[in-house]
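Subject — a protein and its fold
Fields — amino acid sequence, C-alpha cells
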Amino acid sequence: MTTETTYREMVDNKNGRMNRKIIVNEEIYKQELEQIFGRCWLWVGHEGQIPKSNDFTSIYMGEDPVLVTRDAKGKVHSFLNMCRHRGNRICRADAGNAPSFMCTYHGWTFATDGKLVGVPGYKEAYFEELDRSQWGLVEARVDTYKGLIFATWDNSAPSLLDYLGNMAWHMDLSFDRTAGGVDLLPGAHKWMMEMNWKWPTDNHVGDGYHVPITHGSIRGRGTSSGTASGGGLNPANAQLQNRDAFAFGNGHGAASISPSRGSVWSADSENPVNKFNREHEAEIKQRLGERAKWQPGTCAIFPNLVISNPAWSGSIKLFLPRGPLWTLGWSYYFVDKQAPKEYRDTIRTYQTLMHGPSGIMEADDAVPFIQATGTARGLIAQKYMINQQLGLGHERIHEEIPAMAAPSPSEIGQRGYYGFWAEMMDAPSWSQGKLTPRKN
C-alpha cells in the first residue's frame, strides 16, 4: 500500500464494510502475489491426473507456471516451469508422460524429480565446473488431501491439514464418500475474464443471496433442478429451507449446507447420478458416519479454489490472477472413482451446459463480476465502501458442523474470506498470522 492504512482497516468486518480499492489497486495486487500466492497452500491438481511414474500436468500458482510431476520413484512434485539457465519454459504441453524435460533454448534437461541431468557443452564449454546439483528446478512444498494436490512456496507455512482446518470436514463429504475417492474427467475449460480474481471466489464462498436474481431466468425455465443449483436460496424463504451459510475459518466458506440428501437422490429414478448415489448409500453412510446426512454446498478454499455443486455434480474451479483487472478461469469436473460411463457422461454434459465458459450459470455470474470490477476503477466509486452487512450479528457456532454459521443467505463467508485476506496481507510471516484451530 502507498498509505499507512492497514489491510485490517480496509476490511472492516465489525461494521460489514470494505474498501473498494482492494479490487483494482495495482500496488495491492503486487502485494497479493507476495503475501498470498507466495505463501498460501494453492491447489495444483489431483493425484488421478498423474497416476503413473513420469506423468505430469501443467498449471499455475498465481502467475507462476508450474509442472506437477510424479517422478520415477512415485513421489509427487510441483516445480516452477522455468529453465534455470535463461528462464525459458521447459514444457509447453498441458499433460503427458516423459522421463525428462529439455529446454528448447539451450538444451538444459531436467528429470521428473527436478534434477538437472543434461547440459550441452558441460565438458567443452563449462569445463565441468558447473555444479549441476545447485541448478535443479525450483520446487514448491507439496502435500495432498483426499487425492487433491496442494503446493506452497513457503517452507515456513503450516501443514496443509492445519491450513485447511475445519474445511476438511466439508471436503470429505465430496472427496471421501466412496472407496477410491474421485476422478477428474479428462481436460479442462480455460477462459479469460475482465474481472478481479477475488470476485468469483467471493461469489462461491458464501453468496446464496444472488441466486434468485442473477439466475432467475434459469429457475423460471426449469433448466436446473432447485437442489442442484442451490435451490430455495431466496431471501424470502431461506430460513424455512433450514439452510445455513458457513465460515470454516482461514478464509474458507460454504454458501449452504443442507441437512438432507434425499431430495437429490430420489428426484429422478432414471438419472444415472441419482441411481449411483442410491446404490452406494450404505457405503457413503459407513464412510462418513453422522456426516452422511449433510449435503455439501458450493464452497471456496482460500485463496482461489472453488468447489461448485459438490452434492452430486461437482466442478473444481481455479481463478488465477492476471493483474488486478483480469482473471484466468480453469474448470475441471469430478465424479466418484467408481462411477460408470453413464454417470460420467451425464456430469460432463450437465457441467458443460451449466458451468462451462459459455455455460448458463457461468455466463450469468460473469456479468456482475465484470461490472463490479469496472465500476471499482472509478475515482468517485473508490470513495464509497462495499457493503457486507448481510446477516451481520446473527452468526453462531453451529451445533454439529465445525464452523461459524448464519441463516442463509448471509455474507458470513465473505466476511471470513476477506478477514483472512487482510490477516495474510498484514502479517509479515506465518508466525504472526492467525489460523483457526481444527476440531477433531
Confidence is low (pLDDT under 50) at residues 224-240. The radius of gyration is 22 Å. The CA atoms of residues 142 and 151 lie 4 Å apart.
